[in-house]
Amino acid sequence: PALRDVTSDQESSAPALTVEIDRQAASRFGIPAQDINSALYNSFGERQITQFYTQVSQYKVIIEVSPELQEDTSTFDKIFLRSPLTGGQVPLSSLVTFTTGASKPLTVNHLGKYPSVTISFNLAPGVALGDAVTVVENATAEMGMPATVTGSFQGTAQAFQDSLKSQPILIAAAIVAIYIILGMLYESYIHPLTILSTLPSAGLGALLTLWAFGHDVGVIAIIGILLLIGIVKKNAIMMIDFAIEAERDHGVEPEKAIFEACIKRFRPILMTTLAAMIGGIPLALGHGDGSELRQPLGYAIVGGLALSQLLTLFTTPVVYLMFDGILLRARKMRKHHQEDDLDNAGSQPA
Questions:
Q1: What CA–CA distance (Å, rounded) separates 51 from 59?
Q2: Treating both helix axes as pointing N-terminal to C-terminal, what angle do 219-250 and 291-347 enclose, rounded to 10 degrees?
Q3: CA distances from 109 to 26, 112, 117, 329 (A)
Q4: CB atoms within 10 A of CB 38
């Protein structure tokens, strides 16, 4: 039910006629096998005998018997060859034997030098390409094909699979690049992790929204998630940047610094998020030509921003205080070790 217009390029129902030369009969009449082959090809092949040209095109002249005669074996009785020994005309049916067998392939297609059969399909209304690919893979597994027969997707399905293979690497590379840039900005290994902690909530919101409205995680949806990475981390940057500045420049305690950051940055965070969500709503609700491409992008953006907006103001302060406590304990331990080293150095005899 997920596929429509399933077709195959395999043409294996062509009627077959096996023709063999009777060499003993041909030798009695003195007719060489090459002449018999030529007569067969002239009659049933497509031998080009000449070609003539006009001012705008060219035409090939093909010699063969009439198409209606090619379907009847009695045509062998109507084709004659001259015998060099007797000088008479010998029917071709006296020089060959023929048998009709099972149907054989009319054409044999190849892919990468190997025989192949291409099965094409269209998607049923409301079915995503990812679901169709899963259906085909399940059907292939249930068939139990031998190890010598392999299958692969081509065209749009192949491009879809290739994009899915590279997308996790692209997302990981984007996160690593963001971490490096934020680490250079704040001169810290810890605070970039606080900012990146907002990404899971955005990704979860996007996936839940796509699932709720029946969309798969395709290329367009992944683009929406990549956009979320930039929009959502901006919310955390606005809070973390304010809190770090309050701690470093004004000596404010971490709890009070992040609390003030949440209060004072709430309005710009909310305005920016609402502006992005309102811009994504027409993409999610729009219909018409190309809407199946735009809707996953809109749902991913709107759903991810909605959930991240609800959770960011609660989870970011918690993660900030947790990492800040770890950083503070690490500093105290390092300072304690340095004092111990100085004491040990001072107690040694000169």
A1: 6
A2: 30
A3: 36, 10, 7, 69
A4: 14
For 17-100, CATH gives 3.30.2090.10
Q: Contact, 167 vs 225, CB < 8 A? A: no
Amino acid identity at 292: E
Q: What 8-state DSSP symbol labels residue 49?
A: E
DSSP label at residue 147 = T
DSSP per-residue string spanning 264-297: HTHHHHHHHHHHHHHHHHHHHH--STTHHHHHHH
Whole-number Å distance between alpha carbons of 293 and 296: 6
Indicate the burial class of 100 (C-beta count within 10 angstroms; 0-12, 13-18, 19 or more): exposed
Integer Cα distance of 297 and 283 in angstroms: 7
pLDDT of the chain, 350 residues: tens digit per residue: 678 888 888 877 777 778 888 889 889 889 999 999 998 888 888 888 888 888 888 988 888 888 888 878 888 888 899 988 888 898 988 888 888 776 777 778 888 788 888 888 888 877 777 778 888 888 888 888 888 888 888 877 777 777 777 778 888 888 888 889 888 887 888 888 888 888 888 888 888 988 888 777 777 888 888 888 888 888 888 888 888 888 888 888 888 888 888 888 888 888 988 888 888 888 888 877 777 778 888 888 899 888 888 888 888 888 888 888 887 777 777 766 666 666 666 555 54
Q: Domain extents for the chain?
A: 1-14+109-152, 17-100, 156-346
**Centroid of chain to Cα 244:** 43
The CA distance from 186 to 342, in Å, is 30
Find the helix or strand (DSSP H, E) in which 154 lies: none
The whole-model pTM stands at: 0.55
156-346 placed in CATH 3.30.428.10: no
